[in-house]
Structure formats: structure tokens, C-alpha cells
Design brief:
By secondary structure, the chain is an alpha+beta fold. It is built from ten helices and 21 strands.
């Protein structure tokens, strides 16, 4: 169990950046959890590393989905919270402040609804006027940390291959847009995207159903007698163009992948005309109106997974190919570069905490062997400053790094 020292504040002290790849969106349905997990993405991690009034309490425990361990998990959480209370007392915090920090977490112990949907790990965070908890799909090693910052490194593997992606469910009668991760899916408001073909074409009536067959991934052949068939083809194309126009407006400058779900002839036509450059190969075939959000997610994940995991592989390739002057591997150098906003991409491996001090006036960084009331985990500081300066962070295996717990590609 790792315990850091008493401090007066949490976070790096830098202003929180708005890290969004697309305009802020509104959901029209509750987020559906896949496999009982909560959403932990770049936005959630960035919220944790932003400045908070201290002290900061971070708790991790391995939880059980079934068996006798499910009865023991609430008890273990209670023991860790008792330990946190003791540590806060030793650090000189009063009972009122301790209760303010820990009461929201103590309330979870007897919350039967909360324990009804367990995952593989549980991460809990508390500071004055702030608390969060996340059920995650990876086992977490039991630990308690009270210190200057929230501890987020154990959650970083969730960011690898778990960025957001979009899913466009497209049919003549209904258009739906979803935002999803590996563990969640939620329907978004459409905004400028038409809700149906009738909506897009302002109630135009169709004389007869379009007949078609797909002749390749990018070509659709239409059949119809005389001009009526051509009119119907044009109507479908107009509908899809209007959907795409609204989609590009809706997603703004997003670079997140988009999965299409539609009857077989829509995706090749939509992909050919679309101005959104991040549509994945392959699609979910069939009328999406007949599938639940969870079913759509299940079929979308194998299509989008390679796109989401590619970024980590590319970052490792960039690290190996970068000139030595643009790479940092020594922890103290990483801290200094991150403080200046100089890290473009950070690759960090799971492992022990690295304790040290940072002089706020001079910026001098020193590594020490043991934690004390004046130290902090330097690697947590690197992660925080990298994210808050719009850098990218990837969790990698220790074997993928050159004998260092972390390495960075520098901006300058």
C-alpha cells in the first residue's frame, strides 16, 4: 500500500485544457455500460489530473463479478477507507474535513445497487468537494494513496484502444448517431443530421421502392423502369448527401472513427460521397432499426478495434525513429519537459511509483528513494502535465521501452 505525504493541493496547478475532438455533444439516452464498466477516457483522466484542492485520496481494489469475493469487496473497501481516515488524521486534518472528503465513498459500502453491477476493478477518488468512482474492466492492484495528486497511472491502459468512436445507424425511416468506447455506448442528439429520408427531403413521396444490387464495395447498381428509377436513385443520393452534410457539421474536426450500420447498399454509396474522412472499412449490415444499441456495439467493436489500437503502435514506431534530441527517457528530464509543455507523446509502462520533489520557483527536479510529506510521484506529474498541455499518453509494456519506466517524444 503506497502512501504519500500531506499537501495543500492536488493536480499540477495548470489550467485544465478542453480536450475534445469534436464539438460538445448531448446524449438523448443514458449511457449503456458494456460488461458492467464505467466510461474512463481521456476526458475523465484529464478531469482527475486537473487542479483540485487537497488532500487527494486515490483507492484501487480488485473486485469480483461472481463468487464469494463479491461479498468481501464492500468490506475491503471499508478497510481501505478506514486506513485513509487514519492517514488523513496523522497528516493533521480535522475530523470535519476528513468526513467531507470520505463520506461519499463510505456511502458506497452499503449501496446494494452499486454492488449489483461489479466489474474487474474499482477506482475511487476523493478530495474536498470532489469525488469520483469508476468500475473498470481490468483488475487493479489494491492500493491507497494520499498525496499531492490523484493517482491515475493504473487506469492508463484503459486509454489504449479505448478512444471514442461514432456509430451511424442509417435507414430510410430512421437515422441515429451513437458515441461509444470499448465499454460504453450512448445515443447522441442528431443536431443538423436529418432524422429520416422524409425529414431530409421534406416529406417527398416515393412512387415505388428502389430496386438495387451491390456490385462492389464502392459501386451500387440501381434498377428501375424509365425515369422513375432514376428519380428514386437521385432521392437516395440526396438523402445520403444531406445526412453526410449534417454529420460533418455535427462532428466538427473530430478524428474519431465512424462505423456505418445500414442495409447493404447504403455504406458503399455513403462512403463514396462522404466528406467525413474517418469512416472504417466494413460495416454492420442489415436494418439497424432491428438491433439494440448493445447489439450494434457488439458488431461494431471488431470493425473499429484495429483503428483504435493503431495509434499506440504508431507512437512506438515514432519513438524508435525519432532523433535522440527529440526523445526523453530520464524521469527528471521528463518532468521538466512536461512542465514546459514540451511533450508531444508520452509512453509509460505500469510499475512502481518514482518519488521526488519539484521546486516550484526554480523548476529543479530531484528523485528520492522514499516518499515523505514533501515528495510526489514524479511519473504522475509527467502524466498530468502532458495531458493538460494537450499531449498524448499511451500505456505500453515495459519490454517495449528502453530500460526506463517512461519515454517521450518531444515537441521541442
Amino acid at each position: 500500500m503506497a502512501v504519500a505525504g500531506k499537501t495543500m493541493g492536488c493536480g499540477s496547478g495548470r489550467p485544465k485544457s478542453l480536450i475534445l475532438g469534436f464539438p460538445e455533444v448531448q446524449t438523448v439516452s443514458k449511457q449503456i455500460l458494456i460488461g458492467g464498466a464505467d466510461l474512463v477516457g481521456i476526458t475523465e483522466i484529464t478531469e482527475l489530473v486537473a487542479k483540485h484542492r487537497g488532500p487527494c485520496v486515490s483507492i484501487f481494489l480488485h473486485t469480483h463479478r461472481s463468487g464469494p469475493g463479491t461479498q468481501q469487496d464492500p468490506t475491503l473497501l471499508g478497510e481501505l477507507l478506514d486506513d485513509a481516515s487514519t492517514q488523513l488524521t496523522l497528516f493533521g486534518f480535522g475530523q470535519d474535513q476528513i468526513e467531507e472528503i470520505l463520506t461519499p465513498l463510505f456511502a458506497l459500502i452499503d449501496n446494494g445497487e452499486f454492488w449489483k453491477y461489479p466489474a474487474d476493478g474499482l477506482a475511487l477518488y476523493a478530495a474536498p468537494s470532489f469525488h469520483r468512482h469508476f468500475r473498470v474492466q481490468i483488475p487493479l492492484e489494491e492500493s491507497l494513496t494520499v498525496g499531492q495528486t490523484f493517482r491515475v497511472r493504473p487506469l492508463l491502459p484503459l486509454l489504449t484502444g479505448d478512444s471514442r468512436f461514432f456509430l451511424l445507424a442509417l435507414s430510410q425511416n430512421q437515422v441515429k448517431l451513437y458515441e461509444a468506447t470499448k465499454s460504453t455506448i450512448a445515443e447522441l442528439s442528431l443536431g443538423p443530421i436529418p432524422a429520416s429520408m422524409a425529414d431530409a427531403l421534406m416529406g417527398e413521396k416515393f412512387q415505388r421502392q428502389l430496386q438495387f444490387r451491390s456490385v462492389s464495395k464502392t459501386t451500387v447498381q440501381y434498377f428501375g423502369s424509365g425515369s422513375a428509377g432514376e428519380v428514386e436513385k437521385q432521392s437516395v443520393e440526396r438523402f445520403l448527401r444531406l445526412v453526410d452534410h449534417g454529420l460533418v457539421q455535427r462532428l466538427g474536426n473530430s478524428t474519431h472513427p465512424l462505423v456505418l450500420a445500414a442495409v447493404e447498399y447504403y455504406p458503399p454509396l455513403f462512403r463514396e460521397m462522404s466528406k467525413y474522412p474517418h469512416i472504417v472499412e466494413g460495416s454492420i449490415e442489415g436494418n439497424p432499426n432491428h438491433r439494440s444499441p448493445v447489439e450494434l456495439h457488439t458488431e461494431a467493436w471488431p470493425l473499429v478495434k484495429p483503428y483504435l489500437e493503431a495509434a499506440r503502435r504508431q507512437a512506438l514506431d515514432r519513438l524508435r525513429e525519432a532523433p535522440t534530441t527529440r526523445v526523453a527517457t530520464i524521469v527528471t528530464d521528463l518532468v521538466a519537459s512536461a512542465m514546459e509543455g514540451g511533450i508531444d507523446t508520452l509512453l509509460i509502462a505500469p510499475g512502481p511509483q518514482v518519488w521526488g520533489t519539484v521546486d516550484p520557483s526554480s523548476g529543479v527536479v530531484e528523485e528520492v528513494d522514499e516518499p515523505s510529506s514533501d515528495t510526489e510521484d514524479l511519473l504522475e506529474r509527467v502524466v498530468a502535465d502532458t495531458l493538460l498541455n494537450d499531449g498524448k499518453v499511451y500505456s505500453v509494456d515495459a519490454s517495449e521501452l528502453p530500460e526506463t519506466p517512461a519515454a517521450a517524444i518531444l515537441r521541442f
